[in-house]
Design goal:
By secondary structure, the protein is of the alpha/beta class. The protein contains eleven helices and eight strands. Strands 3-2-1-4-7-6-8-5 form an eight-stranded mixed sheet, sandwiched between helices.
């Protein structure tokens, strides 16, 4: 297949999309298809970096078939994985997304529109799960409420902003194994305030994510296991981090 992503010079690259991936052959194609569609207004200006984290399947092969840059990484730490991708990025604007998520066709144009206003330091997105249930809603509630009190009301799931601002806040916190996303959002928000800008949310485009964690652990998993919620709040519990992310079955 012809590559929808750039391999051109640094000067031409507007966006770098960073995707951590561990044995994601079931999901990575859908993610990359959505990014390719969103990249159509920017021919030759979108770079995709897939961080190949301890993969034993066809994730790298699939990513390379799209023209994505693949970088091997052995860390069991999403912050370290994402930061390695940020360091390698050649684009002016960084976008991070998980391999089991996908975006609407207007995601990149909406990100650029918000950044061009000069009002936003970066931010998150409007997001949804691919299915809904009462158990999922309650599980989300018991996690979101305490995180809201700790970090504030900030959107997560996909992050965007200029690479210089990602670097200015030190990237993702490598001391954290869980909830590193909302902690990053909190620091980006504070950096924006120092520079007279807001933490933004893309509302006219949508990111959808799979329900595989709920499929694996059950829709009521966080209600039934408050230890996971405490681990998110703590941020560096290796046992729970391995169970939910780094050693979870794919």
């Amino acid at each position: 297949m012809s590559s929808p992503f750039t391999s051109g010079s640094d000067q031409n690259i507007k966006f770098t999309v960073i995707i951590p991936a561990r044995n994601e052959e079931k999901y990575i194609g859908r993610c990359l298809d959505s990014i390719a569609a969103a990249a159509k207004p920017y021919p030759g200006q979108v770079e995709v970096i897939v961080m190949i984290n301890r993969c034993t399947d066809r994730t790298a092969e699939i990513a390379e078939s799209y023209g994505a840059v693949t970088i091997p990484n052995e860390n069991k730490n999403l912050s370290q994985i994402r930061n390695a991708g940020i360091r390698a990025a050649r684009g002016e604007i960084i976008v991070t997304i998980d391999a089991d998520s996908w975006v609407t066709d207007n995601m990149l144009t909406e990100i650029e529109r918000l950044l061009q206003t000069g009002k936003y330091i970066g931010g998150g997105v409007r997001s949804a799960f691919e299915r809904n249930s009462l158990g999922m809603a309650m599980s989300a509630l018991v996690l979101i409420v305490p995180l809201l009190f700790k970090y504030g009301l900030l959107t997560v799931g996909l992050f965007w902003g200029y690479k210089k601002d990602f670097e200015a806040v030190g990237g993702f916190n490598e001391q954290m194994l869980m909830a590193e996303d909302i902690e990053f959002a909190s620091r980006l928000n504070k950096w924006g305030k120092r520079n007279g800008k807001k933490y933004g949310t893309v509302t006219k485009a949508l990111m959808t994510t799979s329900c595989r964690k709920f499929d694996q652990f059950g829709d009521w998993c966080l209600v039934k296991n408050p230890g996971i919620v405490r681990a998110y709040l703590k941020g560096n519990d290796r046992a729970y981090a391995d169970m939910t992310y780094y050693e979870a079955e794919k």
